[in-house]
Amino acid sequence: MKKILLAITVLTAGFLFSCTSGNDPKTVLIDFADALTKKDLVTARKLATADSKELFDMMDEALKTEDDKTKVNSTFDKANMEFGEAKIEGNIAKVPVKDKKTGKTTNFTLKKEDNKWKVVFTIAAIIEMDSSI
User: Fold this and answer.
1) Cα(107)–Cα(93) distance, rounded to whole angstroms?
2) Which string of DSSP letters, residue by residue, matches 14-32?
3) Cα angle: 29, vertex 32, 36; to 5 degrees
4) pTM of the shown model
5) What is the H or E stretch that residue 6 is in?
6) Which of 38, 57, 74, 105 could form a disulfide with 98 if both were Cys (CB 3.0 to 4.6 A apart)?
7) What is the CB neighbour count within 10 angstroms for residue 117?
8) Residue 64 burial (10 A CB sphere; 0-12, 13-18, 19+)
9) Which range of residues forms the domain containing residue 74?
10) What angle separates helix 2-14 from helix 25-37, to the nearest 10 degrees?
11) What CATH number is associated with residue 118?
12) Are the C-beta atoms of residues 32 and 117 closer than 8 Å to each other?
């Protein structure tokens, strides 16, 4: 279970970086990435959809051990990530994030909840992102 959670965390957080403010999809995703990078799960949860709770609960458990924290820390390289512009269709937005080293781009999905953009951070969303790489 820890290996699966670590892989999900690494895959997701490895594509994210930086910090800004606002409520457009790209900015929300950047803020979410910054929170994950800092392991600030309280802030990240606020920026994610309500159905993302299960994955955050799993991450809380995994980050309780120092060994897992060290593994996650070693995977981030903010300088190699680049956010594209959001493509919005109704209440759904897709934001491409490019890994400059590999050239691979992953599309992150956000949706509006309570009139605010939220990152879809569910196991199903992670699997979908992984299959699009």
Assistant:
1) 9
2) HT------SSSHHHHHHHH
3) 135
4) 0.73
5) helix 2-14
6) 105
7) 25
8) exposed
9) 2-131
10) 130
11) 3.10.450
12) no
Quote the tokens at residue 68. Answer: 């897992």
Pick the residue with more confidence: 130 or 56?
Answer: 56
Structural domain count, the chain: 1
Check: CB of residue 97 under 8 Å from CB of residue 105: yes
- Can you give 105-130 as a three-state secondary structure string? EEEEEEEEECCEEEECCCHHHHHHHH
What count of residues does the chain have? 133
State the CB neighbour count (10 A cutoff) for residue 31. 22
**DSSP classification of residue 78:** G
Return the SS3 of 63. Answer: coil
pLDDT in tens, 65-109: 756 555 554 444 555 679 999 999 999 999 999 988 889 998 999
What are the two backbone dihedrals, phi and then psi, of residue 38, each rounded to the nearest 5 degrees?
A: -85, 0
